[in-house]
Amino acid sequence: MDLITLNTKNRGLKGEIAVPGDKSISHRSIMFGSIANGKTTVTNFLLGDDCLSTIACFRKLGVLIEQNEKEVVIHGKGMEALQEPKDILDVGNSGTTIRLLTGILSGLPFHSTLIGDSSIGKRPMTRVVAPLREMGAKIDGREDGKYTPLSVRGGNLQSITYRLPVASAQVKSAILFAGLNADGVTKIIEPVPTRDHTERMIQRFGGEISRKDKEIFVEGAQKLSGTDIHVPGDISSAAFFLVAGCIVPNSKISLNNVGLNPTRTGILDVLHNMGACMEIHKNDTDVFEPTGTITVSTSDLKGTTIEGEIIPKLIDEIPIIALLATQAEGETVIKDAHELKVKETNRIDTVVTELKKLGADIQATEDGMIIRGGKKLIGTKVDSHGDHRIGMMLAIAAQICEGELILQNAKAISVSYPSFFEHLNALSNG
Ligand code: S3P
């Protein structure tokens, strides 16, 4: 299924779907379940390639993890029960796995080696290696720890005060995991807020963490206890169908059980500002992560500017927002998004290159892109470049293109949304 031909059906997208579980929360449920004491049962776990890589790594660290279509059960025995792996830990395509796992391994008195695929090999690791070394972990890697493979020999960590130089939840989380196992109180200063799933999960597993404005405090030597986690639907996956519902003529789509954590909902603000026909109904029964149902329908859209503190709240949605902007009246400017350059691909390059092939008026800038809307897109051969979010953005583009769109490297989509084409077909026939 690596080369897919897609055609517009022109009947619109209609119906109701529940997008799969949140990727960030699924990863963290395995990590916390593995370092906690007792059984953790996770429902609506995302069975995408990235989260399966996390399970495989923790099994290599000696954790018993049972997994079927309905649930994942982790039999945690506490941090100190993790064992030196006999084999290399392979994170596949997953940046979240390698960065957070490096934080956990930094607190453990044994040796481990981490590798990933060719995309992981290009992604910067200094951002986690530097603070973890400061805490006392011995970490080495290619070009002095800039890139994978990484090798870690942890243990005896000291708490630190660390100001995050990049707005990254992965870096914050790696330090929090290490901080849970360090001597003293670790303080992280987060100049711009990023997703707070790790903080919420520490509390869910019975741990303590506090926040005062931009400062986060976590005490070391905490004991966590296993719990049940129901993973909300992933707003980053929902984003593809939120945009599809707005730009495909004659559409109305409802997405159920979508995570509405305010550190992730930047896309909803953008849709609102651009004039999308959208209704949001929040569930009031949630305790751990907020969720709700979002309904969108075909909309007349106008361009907008996206910059500043909202960027981390929608960083993974920028590829699909770029497609949205091609269908809006006027100009959309995306700024302050340098981080796009170090995602699964350089997403400024891959978004601009692929949308240009379809005839969009889009231009790369140093920290984002400028899109002038209102141009009809024409189908042709395009490429995901092995990046799941670029692949899904192009598959949604196919729904509004004139003629046939051929998507190369479509299989990357299974990294975060294995049932994507099933859902797209269901909505096309809805
Ligand atoms: C993630 C954080 C973000 C995001 C990634 C998942 C997480 O990365 O892009 O897909 O689960 O913490 P950064 O924190 O590096 O920006």
TrEMBL record:
GO CC, one annotated term: cytoplasm
Catalytic activity: 3-phosphoshikimate + phosphoenolpyruvate = 5-O-(1-carboxyvinyl)-3-phosphoshikimate + phosphate
UniProt-listed Enzyme Commission number(s): 2.5.1.19
Domain Enolpyruvate transferase: 10-424
Keyword rRNA processing: no
Residues that bind phosphoenolpyruvate: K23, G95, R123, Q170, R347, R389
GO molecular function: 3-phosphoshikimate 1-carboxyvinyltransferase activity
Alphabetical keyword list: Amino-acid biosynthesis, Aromatic amino acid biosynthesis, Cytoplasm, Transferase
Cellular compartments annotated: Cytoplasm
Active site (record annotation): D316
CDD domains (alphabetical): EPSP_synthase
SUPFAM superfamilies listed in its UniProt record: EPT/RTPC-like
Pathway: Metabolic intermediate biosynthesis; chorismate biosynthesis; chorismate from D-erythrose 4-phosphate and phosphoenolpyruvate: step 6/7
Record-level GO BP terms: amino acid biosynthetic process; aromatic amino acid family biosynthetic process; chorismate biosynthetic process
Pfam families per record: EPSP_synthase (PF00275)
Role played: Catalyzes the transfer of the enolpyruvyl moiety of phosphoenolpyruvate (PEP) to the 5-hydroxyl of shikimate-3-phosphate (S3P) to produce enolpyruvyl shikimate-3-phosphate and inorganic phosphate.
Subunit structure, as described in the record: Monomer.
Family: Belongs to the EPSP synthase family.
Cross-referenced PANTHER family: AROM/DEHYDROQUINATE SYNTHASE (PTHR21090), PENTAFUNCTIONAL AROM POLYPEPTIDE (PTHR21090:SF5)
Protein name: 3-phosphoshikimate 1-carboxyvinyltransferase
Organism: Niallia circulans
Gene name of the record: aroA
